[in-house]
Structure formats: structure tokens, C-alpha cells
Design brief:
This protein is α+β, with helices and mostly antiparallel strands and about 240 residues long. The chain folds into 2 domains: about 55 residues, no CATH class; about 180 residues, no CATH class. Helices cover about 55% and strands about 15% of the residues. β3 and β4 form a beta hairpin.
């Protein structure tokens, strides 16, 4: 068993991680010789080869610290959402799931709040709520479609779906290929997320869970109505009807 890296342990504290992130920014400026971002004392420090080696050693440890924080984020968020769902007494109609652990530090790690669908309509492209780690590592949350909107666009023109789209647009949510509407507050590879997780992870994750749950409570009934309409349209297709 490998011994823990004492430098990683030291830098994992929020106040020390903040310094490491400052060093990272300074080093990037130094490497690109960005005159606007670096100068004076910093330039003098990094011009010393020994200092430069130390700075690079510190910066190399930010990625594993970041990965550790992300691995803490997803299961804690999932547990918080599961508790909220259980307290709401909606577990007979809604379920929550989390991507497998191997995906947590990769794009498209997802925590999904999804409805229990009738067996006949379980393959319909129903709407659900997601918090997703995008390929850009932005942390997106909102209402997701069950398939690419270009595949069968008639589903997304239903009046029940349009009501949700209108609501989300008023809240300044953006529409996407797989999203009826989503918003982004953090990037899991950037300083604001790292420092919040290192310094106040429970409160920080609780705030994100609260925002997600507030959206769910605000539009749950609309989503259930929309999914009924989507299922009805789905079952009208001859190839989807039960024999």
C-alpha cells in the first residue's frame, strides 16, 4: 500500500490549495511569457531554477487533489439527493441514480432524478432531471431529454413540453441537443470549485443539492404531465403498441 503524499495532504487544505492555484497561474504566465500576467517579484522568483522546480512540483499535485475532491463530490451529492427524495415520499414515482465510480472524474458523470414509467412506455424518450459533468467539465444541471432532439422532433413540440421550455427560458436556462434547459454554475477543474470543496464541502454540496431540488419541486408536476403526453405519442406509433 502506497504511503500518502505529505505534500498532497498539505496542499489539500483550502488555504494552501489557494496558494498552489496562484502558483499555477503564475507558472502558466511564466511559460507563455505573458507580460500582462507576470512581472516583478514573481518573475525574479521563477527565474531561479530551484524555485521553478519547486513550483512545478507543487502544480503537478493539483490534478490528483482535484480528482480526490471530485470523488468526494459525487457520492455526497447523491446521498443528499436520495435523502431529499426519501423525505418527500415520492420514491414510488421517482428514483435517483449515480454514474459508476470509475466515471466520476471523467466527462458525463451524472446524477439523475428520473420518473418511474409504465412498462409499456418505459422506452419512450421521457424527460428527467440531471446534474452532469460536461465534456468541458462544466457542472450542468437542468431538464434533459431522453434522446437527441433531432431524432424525433415532434415530441419536443408537444404543448406540455413547451410549457417546461418556456419556464426554463424565463429562468435563463439554455437549450441543448440533449437538454430541454440547463444552467452551469461551476467547472469542476477550476479554482472556485476546488476551493469550495476543500474549504466547506458539506455546505457547498448542500447548496447545489438544494438548487437542484428546488428546480425539481417547481416543475415536477409539469414534467409528469409532459411525460404522459410523450408516452401517449410514443404508444401511437404502430411499432410501439403492445400486441
Amino acid at each position: 500500500m502506497n504511503e500518502p503524499d505529505p505534500i498532497i495532504q498539505f496542499l489539500s487544505r483550502a488555504e494552501n490549495l489557494s496558494i498552489a492555484l496562484d502558483i499555477d497561474r503564475a507558472l502558466k504566465a511564466w511559460d507563455t511569457r505573458s507580460s500582462d500576467a507576470i512581472g516583478g517579484p514573481i518573475s525574479e522568483v521563477l527565474s531561479n531554477q530551484d524555485n521553478l522546480v519547486i513550483a512545478r512540483s507543487i502544480v503537478q499535485r493539483i490534478k490528483p487533489i482535484n480528482d480526490n475532491l471530485i470523488r468526494r463530490f459525487w457520492p455526497t451529492l447523491y446521498d443528499g439527493m436520495k435523502d431529499r427524495l426519501k423525505s418527500s415520499k415520492l420514491t414510488s414515482n421517482w428514483q435517483i441514480k449515480l454514474s459508476g465510480e470509475k466515471k466520476w472524474t471523467r466527462p458525463y458523470a451524472t446524477c439523475t432524478l428520473y420518473p418511474q414509467m409504465d412498462e409499456k412506455g418505459k422506452d419512450a424518450p421521457y424527460l428527467h432531471l440531471e446534474i452532469q459533468q460536461a465534456d468541458s467539465y462544466n457542472l450542468n444541471f437542468g431538464v434533459a431529454r431522453g434522446e437527441d432532439r433531432r431524432k424525433r422532433p415532434s415530441y419536443w413540440k408537444l404543448k406540455e413540453v413547451t410549457r417546461i421550455r418556456t419556464y426554463l427560458k424565463k429562468k435563463r436556462f439554455r437549450e441543448g441537443t440533449w437538454w430541454l434547459g440547463y444552467t452551469s454554475n461551476y467547472n469542476v477543474r477550476e479554482g472556485a470549485f476546488l476551493l469550495a470543496m476543500a474549504g466547506r464541502s458539506d455546505d457547498f454540496i448542500g447548496e447545489i443539492a438544494d438548487n437542484f431540488w428546488d428546480l425539481f419541486e417547481a416543475i415536477r408536476a409539469l414534467i409528469e404531465q409532459a411525460n404522459q403526453a410523450i408516452t401517449h405519442m410514443y404508444l401511437q406509433r404502430p411499432d410501439n403498441r403492445s400486441s
